[in-house]
Amino acid sequence: MGSPTPIVNVPFTGSCIISAKVGTPAVVSDLPVFAEILGGGALRVPPGDPEALAGALLRVAGDAELRAELAAAGARAIAPLTWERAARELRAVLAAAAGSARS
User: Fold this and answer.
1) Domain containing residue 17: CATH number
2) pLDDT tens-digit map of 37-58
3) What is the pLDDT of residue 53?
4) Can you tell me the distance from the alpha carbon of 61 to that of 37, in angstroms, rounded to the nearest whole number?
5) Res. 1 pLDDT band, cuts 50 70 90
6) Can you tell me the distance from the alpha carbon of 22 to that of 46, in angstroms, rounded to the nearest whole number?
7) Helices (H) then strands (E): counts for the chain
8) Which residue range is the domain that position 89 belongs to?
9) Which strand ranges, in their side-by-side order, compose the sheet holding 26-29?
10) Residue 6 contacts residue 49 (beta carbons within 8 Å)
């Protein structure tokens, strides 16, 4: 299992998905996008709070059980996020748009 990966003040990033994919627990800014993507698979800290970030990193670094829990929760959260699903959903949107254009 890798080291915690801080992801701070980024509206959306693939970094949290990659971290979860490789089993790295993430520490992220407390932004809705990270809650939506990772659920309980990350510790969230207030944006711009270096003390909270440091505390979360130390907590994760010092607790093997927490790291394992975060890694497992992150993997479960991102499991549905596949390229196949993205392609199916994009195709459905394009098909609907093409059908609407013909009307």
Assistant:
1) 3.40.50.2000
2) 898 899 999 998 999 999 999 9
3) 94
4) 22
5) low
6) 25
7) 5, 3
8) 5-102
9) 5-7, 26-29, 42-45
10) no
